Amino acid sequence: MKKIIVTGGAGFIGSHTVVELHEAGYEPIVVDNFHNSEKSVLEGLKRIIGKEVKSYAIDCADPAAMESLFASEGEISGAIHFAAYKAVGESVEKPLEYFRNNLDSTLVLMDAMLRYGAPHLVFSSSCTVYGQPEKLPVTETSPILPAQSPYGATKQICEEMMRQTIEIGRKPLRAIALRYFNPVGAHPSAEIGELPRGVPSNLIPFITQSAAGLRPPITIFGNDYNTPDGTCIRDFIHVVDLAKAHVKALELLEKQAEPAFYDIFNIGTGQGNTVLEAIKAFEEATGVPLQYKIGPRRAGDVAGLENRTYAGRCHARRVALATEADGG
Ligand code: WQD
User: Fold this and answer.
1) Which residues have CB under 8 Å from 167's CB, separation 6+?
2) With a 6 A CB cut-off, is 86 part of the ligand 1 pocket?
3) pTM across the whole model
4) Which structural domain, as residue segments, surrounds residue 86?
5) Which of 61, 280, 291, 312 could form a disulfide with 105 if both were Cys (CB 3.0 to 4.6 A apart)?
6) 306: Cβ contacts below 8 Å, ≥ 6 apart
7) CB 136 within 8 A of CB 307
8) Is there a contact between 203 and 240 (Cβ–Cβ < 8 Å)?
9) DSSP secondary structure letters along 245-283
10) Stretch 311-328: mean pLDDT, rounded?
11) What is the mean pLDDT of residues 143-163?
12) 298: Cβ below 6 Å to ligand 1?
C-alpha cells in the first residue's frame, strides 16, 4: 500500500483523514507531537480501522526527527500536512510561536519530501488567506488581501513557499492547498471527534463542552457585524466530508503527468451560517438548551461571508475537485 505521512494525524481533521485514507487503500502513518491532541485518539482509530495505525510521536518541525522518519520508512508516496497551530484568536496573542511552528513544520516537511522523492503533498490551508474580502463571491482567484491574523498569515506564507518552489522553481513536487473553513462534527462511530487540549478556542467544541456542563455559558464574540443577526458567518463543513476531500486531492495529484504541479481549492459546503444559527441548530439537534452571553468582538476575526453567494462558488469548486479526481 502507498504510504502517506499524516502530520497532525491525531488531531481533529487529521484523525478523520487517517480513516478515509485507510478506506481508500492507503497506509496512513501518523506524525504528531500531541501538542493539541490526545494519544487516546490512536486507540479510537484502532477501533475504527481494526488495526494499529503506525505513528511517530515527533515534532514535524524537528529536522533530525523527520530525517530519521524518512530514512527509515523507505518509499513514501506523499504527505498530508495538518500539523499547525490553528486558533485565530490565540495567534493574535502568540504571533511568533505561530510563525515558527507553522512555517518551520512546512519547510522541514517539504525539504524531506524533495530529498527523498515523496512526490505528493496535500496542504491544510484556510479561507483566512483571503483576509476580509472586499468583493464577493470569493473564489480561488480572488485577491489575497492582508491576513487578519497571524494564523492566516502563516497559511498565506506556506502557500507562497509551495507556489515559489513548484511553479517558479519547478522542483519535483505535486501539491494542492485546500482552503477550508470551519470543520465540525465527528466520525459516526463517535470513536474520534473534536477534543482540543484545554479550553476550546473554536466555537463548536466550546458549545459541546458547555452543553455537557464542562464549560461556562458561551460568549458570542460580537453581535454588531453586518450580518443578518449581527454575529459572524462561517461555512461549517462536516469533518468527514473534509477528510474525503483530502483523499480526492491526493488522487488528483497521482493523476498528474508533470512532476511539478500546484493548485488550490476552496473546500466548503456552499452554505454560510451565523454563530447564533449554529447555536440554535445545536439546541434543535440535541434538545439541550444553551446559555450564552454577548461579549466584545475577538481580535483577528473576519466578519465572514456577508452574502452567501460565495458559498455557491465554493460548492462549485468542490464539485470540480471531486469530478477531476474521478477523471470526470
Ligand atoms: C467561529 C466563530 C468567533 C468561539 C476556524 C479555524 C481555523 C480556520 C478558520 C481552517 C467566530 C465565534 C468562537 C467562542 C464565539 N479553519 N466564537 N465564541 O475563527 O472561524 O477559525 O476557521 O483553517 O483553523 O479555527 O473558528 O470556531 O474559533 O470561530 O463567538 O467561544 O465563532 O468569533 O465568529 P474561526 P472559531
Assistant:
1) 260, 262
2) yes
3) 0.90
4) 3-187+236-269+309-325
5) 61
6) 136, 225, 226, 227, 233
7) yes
8) no
9) HHHHHHHHHHT--SSSEEEEEEE--S--EEHHHHHHHHH
10) 46
11) 96
12) yes
Q: Is pLDDT larger for residue 326 or for residue 184?
A: 184
d(CA 186, CA 239): 6
**Residue environment code for 50-62, b if the CB has 16+ CB neighbours within 10 A, otherwise e:** eeebebbebbbbe
- On whether residue 292 sits in a domain, the answer given is no
| 313: confidence class by pLDDT, cuts 50, 70, 90 | very low
CATH code, 125: 3.40.50.720
Average pLDDT estimate for 53-73: 98
Report how far residue 152's alpha carbon sits from residue 243's, in angstroms, rounded to the nearest whole number: 21
Identity at 176, one-letter amino acid code: I
300 lies in some domain: no
Q: Ligand 1 centroid vs 317 CA: distance in angstroms?
A: 23
Joined grid coordinates for residue 307: 452574502
Higher pLDDT, 186 or 307: 186
Is the per-residue pLDDT at 312 higher than 70? no
Provide the pLDDT for residue 320: 47
Which residue has the CA at smallest separation from atom 1 of ligand 1? 203
Within-domain flag for 280: no
- How many angstroms does the Cα of residue 207 sit away from the middle of ligand 1? 12
85, 151, 262, 310: the catalytic one is 151
pLDDT of residue 303: 74
For residue 106, report the phi and psi dihedrals to the nearest 5 degrees: -70, -40
User: What total of structural domains would you count in the chain?
Assistant: 1
pLDDT given for residue 60 in this prediction: 97
Tell whether 95 is covered by a domain.
yes
